[in-house]
Amino acid sequence: MMTDATLEPIPADIPQAPKRSRMRSVFSKDRKAQFGIIVLGLFILGALLAPLIAPYDPNEMTLDMMGSPSGEHILGTDDLGRDLFSRILWGTQISLFVGVATVAISLFFGVLLGVLAGYYGGWIDMIIMRYIDLQWAFPNFIIAVYLVAVFGTGLLNVIVAIALAFLDDFARIARSMVLTLKEEQFVDAARVQGFSDIRIMVFHILPNAMAPIIVQATVSVSYAILGEASLSFLGLGVSADTPTWGLILADGRSFISQAWWLGVYPGLAIMLVVLSINFIGDALRDALDVRDADI
Amino acid sequence: MPLLVVENLSISLFDEGHETQLVDRISYQVEQGETLAIVGESGSGKSLSSLSVMGLLAKELRVTSGRIMLDGEDLLSLSSEEMRQRRGRDLSMVFQEPMTSLNPVRTIGSQIMESIEENLGFSRSAARTRAIELLQEVGMADAERRLRQYPHHFSGGMRQRVMIAIALAANPKLIIADEPTTALDVTIQAQILELMTRLCREHGTALVLITHNLGIVARYAQRVTVMYGGRIVEAGRAVDLYHRPRHPYTEGLLRSVPRLDQDRTQPLRPIQGSPADPFMKITGCRFHPRCPYAAPVCRETKPAFEAGAACHFPLNQESRDAS
To answer: What are the average pLDDT values for consecutive 10-residue runs of chain B, which has 323 residues?
Structure first.
């Protein structure tokens, strides 16, 4: 039989191309996804460059209160004379960070719980799912409000609270995917090759469950951004002096009849980002589902 | 010493306290590099006995007696972790459905290489080289490009070739093939069986071929074991069984499929009745309700396994003795 010594070295640069090129072909055709990437890209760029490109300090108060959009303040100013464009730009940082960090955390732990429950079944499933059911009984947002109310406001608490609130969605999806996938013959085929349970879960079952999980993740990123905005709106957000979209909206709410820009522009920012992420999520789902691939 | 010895193996289904025996004290052996066919219809216990060799019986199923010795080691005494170590390295399996045996979202290459890396500890690039070799061995042209393709790019026959490559990847001592060609076109069936038996011969791998088609295996297996209702009813050399069956069930199996070496004007004769239901108590010989030669003794006493068959009135006695 072949041994290591007799093997000839082979070039290491054989491209692992199909996945990436498939991704490229889906995104090159999908106009909505392109829109999403461009808009989201602009927001990310804006968030990163906020310290450089924001024309004013977001918390600097001026006497130019509730000024309508003008050359000086392109999106106008709020009731304390703060530049709205600068505030929204800085708020993008928090909103995007909260959205992504939240979903990363709840995806990781939710999928972990769901996969363990689905794969092992029995009492492990019983314990995990009773907890998930418990959480299921309350609306996600109520849980987030409750957690922030108990643990206090602040960036970390907001992220943990929203992440915990969304955990059950991921656990449920992962579990139901695993329940059907573990009966598939390719899982038996993996067992026959002597692979460990962990390897089978991570490399054989999970890749097949990723499509719905990723779609859920994109939906959740938008909900997390909305969640953070809602918490801030209720005064349970990151903090009163950190400009976030929800806070800007909340501050502007009382003046909406005199200063429409205080409601429209932060709302527009939220809408554009959420929409972009959803478009990208749809395209991702198409790209990741190799089973529908044209031959 | 034979490579695989299955001795008095019984398997039962436990369902809410009820025990139903599905496999009844079967014994068989496989020599190194040999091909043994296990033939029987659905529910005869042929797949169960092979799953128990792999250590992959479902939770409700339990081995109630017997031993499974691989290379002198009792597999039933191993812990599940030890058994996992044996799978892939010492024994491997090919399933019936090539369309669903491969992971749809991973490339062929990654699936073959995974087995090589995990079971033999090869590096990535060494595993790739070996995977290309394996694909060439199973007759796949342009193996290097094939590695990067997904299962949906492959036809059923080609997928089964990939499965064979994966089964051979770690050079196991024994491969169990559970109806490997049932889901394939007739023309491809012969190719796959040919390929499997040839590769196993070349690698010195023993092959247990599970099938319901006795006609097919006669060409590829050295020895055949026929199972009916969880018991072995006949065992022997493939040629003997094919030309001079001793058990009425074996004879029935042979008569029910068209054969080139027999008068084509003769109608095919199916075996009357339906397969033995393990949940129904059948006394004596389990085949007696369907047997054209059944006598009262068949209903009362379970026939012992003697001279290659478990039957009170074995057929072809003289001709077999004479040969």
So the answer is: 91 88 91 91 86 89 92 90 91 89 91 93 93 91 90 89 91 92 84 90 92 81 91 90 88 80 75 80 86 86 85 74 47
Nearest CA in chain A to B93: A192
Which chain B residues have a beta carbon less than 8 Å from that of A184? 100
- Is the residue at B159 inside a domain? no
Contacting residues for A38 by C-beta, under 8 A, at least 6 apart: none
The enclosing H or E element of B226 equals strand B223-228
With an 8 Å Cβ cutoff, is A55 touching chain B? no
Q: Which residue has the tokens 């509730």?
A: A66
Residue A205 within a domain: yes
The answer to whether residue B235 sits within a structural domain is yes
Which CATH number does the domain housing residue B36 bear?
Answer: 3.40.50.300
A150 touches chain B (CB under 8 A): no
Q: Has residue B161 been placed in a domain? A: no
**A3 in contact with chain B, both atoms CB, cutoff 8 A:** no
Domain carrying residue B123:
105-153
Taking one residue from A and the other from B, the number of pairs with CB-CB distance under 8 angstroms is 102
Is B149 contained in some domain?
Answer: yes
Given this model, what pLDDT does residue B97 score? 85
Residues in B closer than 8 angstroms to A8, CB to CB, are 129
Is A128 within the bounds of a domain? yes
Answer whether B104 touches A (CB < 8 Å): yes
> Looking at the 3D structure of chain A, how many domains does it have?
1
Name the band, by pLDDT with cuts 50, 70 and 90, for residue A7: very low
Interchain contact B166–A (C-beta under 8 A): yes
Q: What is the CA B221 to chain-centroid distance, rounded? A: 11
Burial of A237 (0-12, 13-18, 19+ CB in 10 A): buried
Q: Which domain holds residue A275?
A: 79-292
Same domain, B193 and B211: yes
Are B218 and B304 in a shared domain? yes
Per-residue confidence at A291, pLDDT binned at 50, 70, 90?
low
Q: Which residue does chain B place closest to A206, by CA atoms?
A: B105
Residue B267 shares a structural domain with residue B136:
no
pLDDT at A137 over 90: no
Asked if residue B220 and residue B98 are part of one domain, the reply reads yes
Short-list B87, B130, B91, B131, CA closest to B107: B131
Does B128 sit within 8 Å of A207, measured CB to CB?
A: no
User: Is pTM, for the whole model, over 0.90?
Assistant: no
Q: Inter-chain contact B152–A293, Cβ cutoff 8 Å?
A: yes
Judged by average pLDDT, the poorest of A154-158, A261-265, B162-166, B316-320 is B316-320
How many domains does the structure of chain B reveal? 2
The least confident of A221-235, A278-292, B206-220 is A278-292
> The sheet that has B4-15: what strands, in order across it?
B18-30, B4-15, B61-70, B73-74
Helix (H, G, I), strand (E, B) or coil at B286: coil
**CA nearest A287 in B: which residue?**
B105
CB B109 within 8 A of CB A216: no
